[in-house]
Amino acid sequence: MLEERAYWLAWSQISGIGPVLLQRLIERFGNLGTAWKASAAELRGIEGFGFQTLEKVVQQRSRLQPAQLLSQHQQENPHFWTPADADYPQLLRETPSLPPVLYYRGEVDLPENSGQKPLVGIVGTRQPTEYGLRWTRQISTALAKNGFTVVSGMAEGIDTESHFAAMKAGGRTLAVLGTGVDVIYPHKNRDLYKQILTAGLVLSEYPAKTPPNRTHFPRRNRIIAGLSRAVLVIEAPIKSGALITATYANEFGRDVYALPGRVDDYPSQGCLKLLCQGASLILPELGELLKMLGAIPQLDIEPRLVESAPMPNLSSELQQVMNALTLDALPFDTIVQQTNMSAGSVSSNLLQLELMGLVSQLPGMRYQRCS
């Protein structure tokens, strides 16, 4: 096992060899140790090993001694896992783009790594509204009190709020960085970083002393998704990195939830897009989410979460449609008559209200208030 661990590290040092090609090497040779000794002719038969890649492998492999590399690497990076290690996070191991080396600092929880304890990712914009911050605190608190570990990226905004709230509730949190695990970014989160080390883990696929790089952060989002059984997007503009995390979550077969917001709010545009693409509403389904993931919601938490949801400020047309609705389902034609609006306007407004989590549609073109 120690020998295979060294080969995972050695292969990760060769430029152009990523998770996909590593998986193909294992499929062809059974393990990376055997693949390391394979000739160029043997490697040439594997998809993705073109002339340029083979040239890099031959040149760089000749300069590396896996056992020696492992010994040297551990001096600056004493704590890391490879897929050859039993403690490597199980859910992450099952993804097609698993990091060959995963560095960590903090308090390890082995049942968490083995998948016996559920992890939930919470991501969102770096510039949240008070609405987004409030729901991040309440959702993170509810998850922590129900035994979930909150996973996020320690960025400003939603990430930071989710980490703080989970720890304040007495729970664990994992921060996946786009730097080395010993590099704090953003620097203003140095106190948060120190707290996480005592109440969870800081993780990264980059070795110690790796500085921030704009290309690292989109890639680290796949690790957040891979570690999590579900990903919750709180607030996210259309071009938010949180949507990258949601895309990875879909590819990995994870459940994706989004917090509804007003249609004309910029920070909610990405969430509304996710909902249109089939993501589930975070609210009022938080209790169902907890049950689905194996927890029994604490009754003193869930009702407060749902009851404290404020009615957003609606445009005059949206409010007119809301006023016509009741907790009992009404046919579409009845709503049109009561609002004295065109059928097209009513249909458009009902869709917006449904995306905001205020209205639900029933079979037969019937609609009712959600609460």
What key phrases describe this protein's structure?
DNA polymerase, domain 1; Rossmann fold; Arc Repressor Mutant, subunit A; 9-stranded mixed sheet; 3-stranded antiparallel sheet; 47% helix
Describe the model.
It is a single chain. With 371 residues, this protein is α/β, with parallel strands linked by helices. The chain has 3 domains: 2-76, 5' to 3' exonuclease, C-terminal subdomain (DNA polymerase, domain 1, Orthogonal Bundle); 103-307, 3-Layer(aba) Sandwich (Rossmann fold); 316-369, Orthogonal Bundle (Arc Repressor Mutant, subunit A), CATH 1.10.10. The chain is 47% helix and 12% strand. It has 19 helices and 12 strands. A 9-stranded mixed beta sheet has the order 1-2-6-5-4-3-7-8-9, sandwiched between helices. A 3-stranded antiparallel beta sheet has the order 10-12-11. Helix 13 (241-251) links the parallel strand 7 and strand 8. Helix 1 packs across helix 6, helix 10 (158-168) crosses helix 11 and helix 12 (216-227) packs across helix 13. The longest helix is centred in the middle third of the chain and has 16 residues, at 130-145. It is elongated. Residues 298-309 have low confidence and may be disordered.
Query: How much strand?
Result: 5-15%
* CA-based shape: elongated
Query: Based on helices, strands and strand pairing, what is the structural class?
Result: alpha/beta
CATH topology of the largest domain: Rossmann fold
- Across the major sheet, the strand order is 1-2-6-5-4-3-7-8-9
pLDDT averaged residue by residue:
89
Radius of gyration: 24 Å
Number of continuous helical runs = 19
Count the domains. 3
Largest sheet: 9 strands, mixed
Low-confidence stretches: 298-309
Total E-strand runs? 12
Give the termini distance in whole angstroms.
56 Å
Q: What percent of the residues sit in helical stretches (DSSP H or I)?
A: 40-55%
CATH architecture classification of the largest domain? 3-Layer(aba) Sandwich
